[in-house]
């Protein structure tokens, strides 16, 4: 770190941040309150701090259950997006403001669901990564950079609870209390390190990213799926996962609260033939009602009846290069390229004091190593990286190192006898 934003000295105790400076605002939960909030924030100045609270682990999906905003001249607002589900007008009122968000990729999807999308973004978590901070959670960043501590005891509560308890609301309000000050300090730090342009390019890429395509075969993300080897058993996992997903969606609860992943995998491995046998599988047991057992048994029966040709493949459909562990056998030359490129990226990341995955994503390194340009030149590698979606600052730093690694991988190993 530079002196601009050095961590606070050990002898200086961090100051607890306990109360919003203007007091705890009421929750905006009707059209009149929303209109007043929109007018206040439209008249505010400077960046706007934005945060959202979800009910991960409690409810189905990742919708927002509380949205917090803070802006100079407007103060802090707490908005209930269940009572006010369309916040398009608020998003438009803030269209020309820079949004300051911590870990933006987590919050932007649920904000977009209610009509709020930033045009200009500053992500304080990503800024911390690029600046080389070892701990980039909001609490550690606020403490290390500003010398203030945030209580985080309510981070994993059920934010779908209504009414929200006052201590939870205070916690939520404090999450945006000094977010703009943190942004300003990190901007100074990045500028002092010569990394500000890198960060701004990353922020723009996040703000302008298209909506991700739906995941193919989401059931394959079931925990411990690697234990399931047979295709018929994979079909059982798929049928049970889809049944659980439907139940969870209908009940608006987290799928894991309907049935744990481990129970699905255990049932697929055992393929029980009766409800009693299923009840003996770990993860089920006497607390599972008869009707629920019948649903899971029906899913297992569907898996048994699927024609052999229609069973899911043993491995997920895959685009791009094979897993790196298979490279040495499939293409030793490509494996040598990848090894050299990885080492070069790691060395470069350490020299610039930032995580290697933020310097360039591992997937891009694999892809350019598996299908390299015809010529292992800096210009050709740069063009290939740009075509794969690398940002220009990444290309400028990484292309020369990867090109040199590709050239080096073609040289024969020295004869140890010489």
UniProtKB/TrEMBL annotation:
<dbReference type="InterPro" id="IPR041605">
    <property type="entry name" value="Exo_C"/>
</dbReference>
<dbReference type="Pfam" id="PF01612">
    <property type="entry name" value="DNA_pol_A_exo1"/>
</dbReference>
<dbReference type="InterPro" id="IPR051086">
    <property type="entry name" value="RNase_D-like"/>
</dbReference>
<protein>
    <submittedName>
        <fullName>Ribonuclease D</fullName>
    </submittedName>
</protein>
<dbReference type="Pfam" id="PF00570">
    <property type="entry name" value="HRDC"/>
</dbReference>
<feature type="domain" description="HRDC">
    <location>
        <begin position="230"/>
        <end position="310"/>
    </location>
</feature>
<dbReference type="Pfam" id="PF18305">
    <property type="entry name" value="DNA_pol_A_exoN"/>
</dbReference>
<dbReference type="InterPro" id="IPR012337">
    <property type="entry name" value="RNaseH-like_sf"/>
</dbReference>
<dbReference type="InterPro" id="IPR036397">
    <property type="entry name" value="RNaseH_sf"/>
</dbReference>
<dbReference type="InterPro" id="IPR002121">
    <property type="entry name" value="HRDC_dom"/>
</dbReference>
<dbReference type="GO" id="GO:0008408">
    <property type="term" value="F:3'-5' exonuclease activity"/>
</dbReference>
<dbReference type="GO" id="GO:0003676">
    <property type="term" value="F:nucleic acid binding"/>
</dbReference>
<dbReference type="InterPro" id="IPR002562">
    <property type="entry name" value="3'-5'_exonuclease_dom"/>
</dbReference>
<dbReference type="InterPro" id="IPR010997">
    <property type="entry name" value="HRDC-like_sf"/>
</dbReference>
<dbReference type="GO" id="GO:0006139">
    <property type="term" value="P:nucleobase-containing compound metabolic process"/>
</dbReference>
<dbReference type="GO" id="GO:0000166">
    <property type="term" value="F:nucleotide binding"/>
</dbReference>
<dbReference type="InterPro" id="IPR044876">
    <property type="entry name" value="HRDC_dom_sf"/>
</dbReference>
């Amino acid at each position: 770190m530079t002196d601009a934003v050095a961590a606070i000295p050990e002898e200086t105790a961090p100051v607890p941040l306990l109360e919003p400076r203007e007091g705890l605002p009421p929750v905006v939960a009707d059209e009149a309150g929303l209109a007043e909030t929109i007018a206040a924030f439209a008249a505010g100045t400077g960046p706007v701090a934005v945060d959202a609270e979800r009910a991960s682990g409690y409810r189905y999906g990742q919708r927002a259950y509380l949205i917090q905003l803070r802006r100079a001249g407007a103060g802090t607002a707490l908005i209930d997006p269940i009572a006010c589900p369309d916040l398009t007008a608020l998003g438009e009122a803030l269209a020309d403001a820079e949004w300051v968000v911590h870990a933006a990729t987590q919050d932007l999807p649920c904000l977009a669901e209610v009509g709020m999308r930033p045009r200009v973004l500053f992500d304080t978590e990503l800024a911390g990564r690029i600046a080389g901070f070892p701990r980039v959670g909001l609490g550690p960043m606020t403490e290390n950079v500003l010398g203030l501590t945030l209580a985080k005891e309510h981070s994993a509560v059920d934010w779908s609870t209504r009414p929200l308890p006052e201590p939870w609301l205070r916690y939520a309000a404090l999450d945006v209390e000094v977010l703009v000050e943190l942004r300003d300090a990190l901007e100074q730090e990045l500028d002092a390190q010569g990394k500000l342009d890198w960060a701004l390019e990353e922020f723009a890429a996040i703000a302008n990213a298209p909506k991700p395509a739906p995941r193919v075969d989401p059931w394959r993300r079931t925990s411990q799926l690697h234990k399931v080897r047979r295709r018929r058993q994979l079909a059982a996992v798929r049928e049970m996962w889809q049944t659980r997903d439907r139940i969870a969606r209908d009940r608006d609860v987290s799928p894991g609260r309907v049935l744990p992943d481990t129970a699905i995998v255990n049932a697929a491995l055992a393929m029980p033939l009766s409800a009693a046998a299923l009840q003996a599988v770990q993860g089920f047991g006497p607390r599972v009602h008869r009707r629920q057992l019948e649903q899971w048994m029906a899913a297992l029966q569907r898996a048994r009846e699927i024609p052999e040709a229609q069973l899911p493949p043993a491995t997920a459909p895959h685009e791009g290069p094979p897993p790196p562990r298979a490279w040495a056998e499939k293409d030793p030359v490509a494996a040598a390229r990848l090894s050299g490129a990885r080492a070069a990226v790691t060395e470069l990341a350490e020299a610039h004091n930032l995580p290697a995955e933020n310097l360039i994503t591992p997937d891009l390194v694999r892809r350019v190593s598996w299908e390299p340009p015809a010529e292992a030149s800096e210009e050709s590698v740069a063009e290939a990286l740009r075509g794969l979606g690398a940002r220009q600052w990444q290309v400028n730093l990484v292309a020369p190192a990867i090109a040199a690694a590709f050239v080096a991988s073609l040289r024969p190993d020295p004869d140890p006898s010489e």
